[in-house]
Amino acid sequence: MPPDNESTGDENEGGASTLPGGAVDGTFVVKADGEVLRLRVSVPRAPVGFQAVLPAVRALVDGSVELALQAADREGAPVSCKPDCCACCYYAPMLSPAEARSVAALVDALAEPRRSEIIARFEQALERLREAGLLQRYEQTRRRELDGSSRAGYPGWHDEYLSLRVACPFLEDKRCSIYAQRPMACRSYLVRNDPAECARIGGTLEQVAVRPSVARAAWMLGQEEMAHRSIMLVTALEWARATPEAGQRATGIQWLTRLKASLDAAKDGAAESNGPAG
Q1: pLDDT at 270 over 50
Q2: Distances (CA, A) of 9 to 5, 44, 50
Q3: What is the spatial distance between Cα 129 and Cα 169, in angstroms, rounded to a whole number?
Q4: Of 184, 176, 213, nearest to 68 (Cα)?
Q5: pLDDT in tens, 113-144
Q6: Which of 63, 205, 213, 237 has the fewest CB atoms within 10 Å, i.e. is most exposed?
Q7: Which residue segment(s) compose the domain that 246 sits in?
Q8: What Å distances lie between residue 232 and 23, 60, 113, 188, 194, CA to CA?
Q9: This prediction's pTM
Q10: Do the domain assignments include residue 271?
């Protein structure tokens, strides 16, 4: 993303940025199956953790999703995801540490009594998982990750988690209350099956591939270190409080250069299959 304009960081909405140290504006090109999207993004000019470039990365993920939506329409098999369909809001999205910290910061910034309401929902979700024994299994799997005996991810959990009907703490009136800041796993999860199948235990799902795999590449960059990998959304607040930040720092341009290198290494078009379920 070659920078073509710099912002001082002290301007208001409409061309500017409030990022510490100012921002660099530029164009990032997303390509897939012969289609091209050129996206304007702003990233911090100063060295920052990966969490600070998440807004720009979300825009890139949304761009890759837009290409997938266009491709699905051309194929005559459009996605079935619609407003008020919240079946996947009862799944267990896995976050990178950068996203987990972003979720925790978002909650911390809420005004009362909203902040306490959301925190209570997180706590209730954890209690449900603890009562079902699923939280303990999650923690055991993470311990195996730390000693290298298990890969990231929690296969086999989907139906068990879904059976508990644990709603995302941000779900309200069948809508995502943090839609603009929702996790990348949620942004890139598209299906073309009957929505009823998404809510059914053992349902048959037909996911739509999202190319290029921006969400996956970003998830890898946001790991901070290999010891901190997949973090279940409902554990994000607890994890962020207990885990000191240990990530690298780089300028926004450097982060996006690494993202592009990761996409190039994956041949800039590997299918994205990063659904929200663990």
Answers
A1: no
A2: 12, 9, 18
A3: 14
A4: 213
A5: 999 999 999 999 999 999 999 999 888 877 66
A6: 205
A7: 3-265
A8: 31, 23, 25, 17, 26
A9: 0.83
A10: no
Collapsing DSSP states into helix, strand and coil, what is residue 36? strand
Burial of 112 (0-12, 13-18, 19+ CB in 10 A): exposed
Q: Look at residue 275 and tell me if it is in a domain.
A: no
Query: Measured between alpha carbons, how far is 89 from 161 in angstroms, rounded to an integer?
Result: 11
Neighbours of 61 (CB within 10 A): 28
Instruction: Read off the amino acid at residue 263.
Output: L
Among candidate residues 17, 13, 33, 3, the one with its CA nearest the CA of residue 267: 33
**Residue 150 contacts residue 141 (beta carbons within 8 Å):** yes
> Could you read off the pLDDT of 36-55 as tens digits, one per residue?
888 899 999 999 999 999 99
Task: Identify whether 278 is part of a domain.
Answer: no
| Cis previous bond, 113, omega within 30 | yes
User: Which of 195, 158, 2, 184 shows the shortest CA–CA distance to 82?
Assistant: 195
Q: How far apart are CA 234 and CA 239, in angstroms?
A: 10
pLDDT tops 90 at residue 109: yes
154 contacts: CB under 8 Å, gap ≥ 6: 92, 94, 138, 141, 230, 232, 278
Mean pLDDT of 203-224: 85
Q: Is residue 229 part of a domain?
A: yes
Angle of helix 114-132 versus helix 97-108 axis, rounded to 10: 130
Helices 252-265 + 214-221 axis angle, to 10? 120
Q: How many domains does the chain have?
A: 1
Cis-peptide, bond into residue 78, ω within 30° of zero: no
Within 71-185, strands assigned E span: 94-95, 171-172, 175-176
